[in-house]
Specification:
alpha/beta; TIM Barrel; seven-stranded parallel sheet; five-stranded parallel sheet; 23 strands; globular; repeat
């Protein structure tokens, strides 16, 4: 390949779209939680943020990136930051100021509930949903709230030139929801012109501070977009492009293939650069060719995967870049998306199997990969270009594959027959009360688990401590008056990692933390080979809990789709095949739980919506295998065994039919923040099984009153008859404390009893 022309035309050789912000040792998590708990003040939290930002900027500059992003740091969420930046603050929070207002919007306070929270496209990252109405008047925030300007100047003071990153105006409005009091027919997109005026002011101020480039993230462009929305895109970037004083503009898309109409409008606009994801969106090459390329523009080519942990195939990345050279004037090598979605440093993982470790790259290693590809292209460095491709997955299990081939139709019996059989076997009241699974994990529980991992306590001591906690949780639930109990999951570190550590084909990290929302960080396991269950995983704990009470105790499992969505998954075979392998392992676990006398088994699938393809044309095939995997796992039980599932923090409208197709006997869903909207949607879609809409938002520290929960239940009863309505929180209680948990559950039980009495009367 002739790279001589590239040496004279590349202006920004390498960059990334974003970087993790939690810190290598989760410094941001601990500092934020200290602030919430009153153990540290705002100044201490601000200093931690400044230290983390400086460390990232310095690291990226010293690594050799040609362009370093800024404003990718956040104390909670970048969409929430945008709402604060443009003063899209609902009136109920305006009596608060500074960080108190910011965190109240994210988490709520006792008298004020938080904004809604949902998944960021098809990832496990959660964003705070903007709440907008026709009276919303955007204006640029001042002082510390004007983050892009403050952080650009902060980096510049360190001698580091950065490219500020903003959520693009179109994506921001398309992710927003109308305020509860907004008139029917109002759409957040109606506010585009006013929002673009504020963006124009931000750009002008950044230019005045010396910023040469600004990155505007528009991932919404890889989903299906209407002609009206494409016109809005053109209107926004025509306005911003015509500013007389502004930085150069880079519009970044990621998570898939941009629509041809959107790319055509960007190609005609005055923006100077466009970012495309060639990992999740290999079709971007064809779209780019179909619109005639990007003459007189820079293409930021996402050829290093920002969402998975496999080492880049540099030969493929280089070949992709080579195929783009004739379609653009300038080329920049980049990650496919922000590195927010991967752990920070592989070097910290000293205990991983060398064969698996040799195939991995985390954020720091991916930065090096981007630089290596860029150097190979611009300087003709053969060593980087000829790096071997990622090895194929190992560990083929013929037994697993043969069993899957032998299983026939995965269906359960008639719903009405099952309903009657379970009602007689379980003897539960209408509006039965339960929780989603986990109970608070106290510092003592975490110390015991850490002690067991470190070898400081014996297996017998660990088992005794866990059983003591289970006994305490069972006794508490009986005292509270809950109808269906859980064992509390004290032995579980995470709902995916716990199972991954017991299944063949998975590897777990020690320090591979990734932000899920706010201070919630997870360590996604790495699924690298065929999956099999060598032994039972939950039966001992569930049966012990059941031995302590006459009330039914739920067995708790994580479903096959979520086991994939919240892991880093092998990419050498279709996801559908991997999902069936996980489902087969869960099917065996469910059979053992049922044989041990567990009469209710919950198989959680909170990620069912998360993995839904962004393009409608791709969704039927996904839902077919996703639903099939769940049914494969759950279809082997008797009619008297009740199967539950749980889903949370997603926009469920596009999978309403799939929720019914799972054929779980009871589905519990997040509903408190969205005021029971989903219940009516399910009813309209013909959903006929049990439903447990969450009446308590557990991601907020506030304790909802019994009357508030009653109101939610009465809303639900407008769409669901009492015999099918369950009463539960939105999600597991792992992150909550016992005082708020006990108070909230007492209110929940009181609300259920009061409404139950009214229904009976």
């Amino acid at each position: 390949m002739n790279t001589a022309s590239m040496k004279t035309t590349i202006s920004m050789k390498t960059t990334i779209l974003g970087y993790p912000r939690i810190g290598a040792r989760r410094e941001l998590k601990f500092a934020t939680e200290d602030y919430w708990a009153g153990r540290a003040g705002a100044d201490a939290l601000a200093q931690t943020g400044a230290d983390l930002r400086a460390a990232v900027w310095t690291e990226l500059r010293d690594a050799g990136l040609d362009a370093v992003p800024s404003n990718t740091f956040s104390f909670y969420d970048q969409v929430l930051d945008t709402s604060v930046l443009v003063d899209a603050v609902p009136d109920r929070y305006r009596h608060l100021t500074g960080l108190d207002r910011y965190f109240a919007m994210a988490r709520g306070v006792q008298d004020v509930p938080p904004l809604e929270m949902t998944k960021w496209f098809d990832t496990n990252y959660h964003y705070i949903v903007p709440e907008l109405g026709p009276d919303t008047r955007f204006r640029l925030a001042e002082g510390a709230a004007a983050k892009p300007l403050a952080e650009y100047r902060e980096a510049k003071a360190l001698g580091i030139e950065t490219r500020p990153v903003l959520v693009g105006p179109l994506t921001y409005l398309l992710l927003a929801k109308p305020a509860p009091d907004a008139p029917e027919g109002f759409r957040p997109l109606d506010l585009l012109d006013g929002l673009v005026d504020v963006y124009a002011e931000v750009l002008e101020r950044l230019a005045g501070s010396g910023a040469a480039w600004v990155q505007l993230d528009e991932p919404a462009l890889v989903a299906d977009r209407t002609e009206e929305e494409i016109d809005a895109l053109a209107r926004a970037y025509t306005r911003l492009g015509r500013l007389t004083s502004r930085p150069r503009l880079m519009v970044a898309t990621y998570f898939g293939t941009i629509g041809a109409a959107a790319l055509r409008r960007l190609a005609r606009s005055r923006v100077e650069a466009v970012g495309l994801d060639f990992v999740a969106g290999p079709g971007n090459l064809d779209v780019l060719a179909s619109v005639g390329g990007l003459p007189r523009k820079t293409l930021v080519a996402g050829v290093v995967d920002g969402r998975n942990v496999w080492r880049a195939d540099q030969r493929r990345a280089r070949a992709t870049c080579a195929s783009l050279l004739g379609l653009v004037d300038q080329l920049v090598v980049s990650t496919s998306c922000s590195l927010l979605h991967v752990p920070i440093d592989l070097e910290a993982e000293t205990a991983l199997d060398p064969d698996v470790r040799g195939r991995l790259a985390f954020a720091r290693q991916k930065v090096a990969e981007v630089i290596a590809v860029g150097r190979a292209l611009s300087e003709d460095v053969p060593a980087a270009a000829e790096a071997p491709a990622t090895p194929a997955a190992a560990g083929i299990d013929r037994g697993v594959r043969e069993r899957l081939d032998s299983i026939g139709d995965a269906r359960r019996g008639d719903r009405g027959t099952r309903f009657a059989a379970q009602r007689e076997a379980l003897g539960l009241p209408e509006l039965a009360t339960t929780t989603i699974g986990s109970f608070p994990q106290t510092p003592e529980i975490r110390r015991v688990r850490a002690g067991r991992r470190a070898g400081r306590i014996t297996a017998a001591e660990y088992e005794r401590a866990m059983k003591d906690e289970i006994a305490r949780v069972i006794a508490l639930q009986e005292d509270l008056g809950l109808d269906v109990l859980v064992h509390g999951e004290p032995e579980r570190n995470d709902m995916v990692q716990y199972f991954a550590e017991q299944l063949d084909g998975y590897a777990a990290t020690e320090h591979g933390w990734v932000q899920s929302y706010g201070t919630r960080c997870v360590r996604p396991p790495i699924l690298h080979s065929d999956v099999a269950r060598p032994r039972p995983m939950t039966v001992e704990w569930a049966t012990y809990a059941q031995s302590l009470t006459s009330r039914p105790v739920k067995g708790m499992l994580t479903g096959p789709v979520t086991m994939l969505a919240w892991s880093f998954v092998r990419d050498d075979q279709p996801l559908a095949e991997t999902a069936r392998q996980v489902a087969l392992a869960l099917r065996d676990e469910i059979a053992d739980l049922e044989a041990a006398g567990i009469r209710i088994i919950q198989v959680d699938e909170p990620a069912l919506r998360e993995l839904l393809p962004l393009r409608a044309a791709d969704r039927p095939a996904y839902l077919d295998w996703a639903v099939g995997a769940f049914r494969l796992a759950t279809s082997g039980v008797a009619d008297t065994t009740q199967i539950h599932t749980h889903m949370c923090y997603s926009e469920f409208g596009e999978i309403i039919g799939a929720i019914g197709a799972l054929d779980a006997d009871v589905t519990s869903v997040e509903a408190a923040r969205s005021h029971m909207e989903l219940v009516g949607d399910l009813r309209a879609a013909g959903y006929a099984n049990g439903i447990g809409p969450g009446v308590w938002d557990i991601h907020s520290p506030r304790v909802p009153a019994a009357g508030e929960m009653e109101e939610n239940l009465r809303r639900a009863l407008r769409a669901v008859e009492p015999a099918r309505l369950w009463v539960n929180p939105d999600c597991g209680l792992k992150t909550r404390g016992y005082p708020e948990t006990e108070a909230s559950l007492r209110n929940l039980v009181a609300a259920a009893r009061h409404v139950r009495e009214d229904v009976a009367g």
